[in-house]
Specification:
heterodimer; A: mainly beta; seven-stranded mixed beta sheet; four-stranded antiparallel beta sheet; 0% helix; B: six-stranded mixed beta sheet; five-stranded antiparallel beta sheet
Chain lengths: 114, 114
């Protein structure tokens, strides 16, 4: 379904713990992104990667880390430094080919700090 | 960086009426403007997009218009139906190879009343 898979769907974290959200795509897309969605707000970019072994900070990178060791995978770690981690996290991927640059989203992971 | 403002934040329309959502962007270098629809609990999905070399694009009941001079673009939904009820996001980006970093507006929650 859509070729981009996030897991888990729901995640609960205790304060002070790091957690890692998984994002895998089989669309052969070069670029991958992590967005955070809070109620009543738009999607805010956390990190993005245009190529393997390279990534850039987005608008709200503090308290988050990523890696891009494989083209298919772009995991996001929410560290204990993130002050307000409870949110809905969306991963996306896109490829520039023949003018088609649509971004495809995963189903999202809802993270709750307990 | 790019900043996208979206209005209104909520929109209630009677079934069969039209709905209009407006967005403004700040970066004149942006040249790609997609619209995403997010139904409750689901991933955002692209419904229509427009590039800066086009002023208007239509796909059945939805249309998007772009005014580059004023840096604003709008989504028009005609003959609204209950299944149009969702949150709609506009976005802006500058397309480049192997990447399409989208900046999203805050979203508009559309409710179509039968």
């Amino acid at each position: 379904d859509g070729g981009i898979t996030q897991s888990p769907k729901y995640l609960f974290r205790k304060e002070g713990q790091n957690v890692t959200l998984s994002c895998e795509q089989n669309l052969n897309h070069d670029a991958m992104y992590w967005y955070r969605q809070d109620p009543g707000q738009g999607l805010r970019l956390i990190y993005y990667s245009q190529i393997v072994n390279d990534f850039q900070k987005g608008d709200i990178a503090e308290g988050y880390s990523v890696s891009r060791e494989k083209k298919e995978s772009f995991p996001l770690t929410v560290t204990s430094a993130q002050k307000n981690p409870t949110a809905f996290y969306l991963c996306a991927s896109s490829r520039w080919e023949g003018g088609n640059t649509e971004a495809f989203f995963g189903q999202g992971t809802r993270l709750t700090v307990v | 960086g790019e900043n996208v403002e979206q209005h209104p934040s909520t929109l209630s329309v009677q079934e069969g009426d039209s709905a209009v959502i407006k967005c403004t962007y700040s970066d004149s270098a942006s040249n790609y403007f997609p619209w995403y629809k997010q139904e409750l609990g689901k991933r955002p999905q692209l419904i229509i997009d427009i590039r800066s070399n086009v002023g208007e694009k239509k796909d059945q009941r939805i249309a998007v218009t772009l005014n580059k001079t004023a840096k604003h673009f709008s989504l028009h939904i005609t003959e609204t139906q209950p299944e149009d009820s969702a949150v709609y996001f506009c976005a802006a980006s500058m397309i480049k190879a192997a990447g399409n970093k989208l900046t999203f507006g805050g979203g508009t929650r559309v409710l179509v009343k039968p």
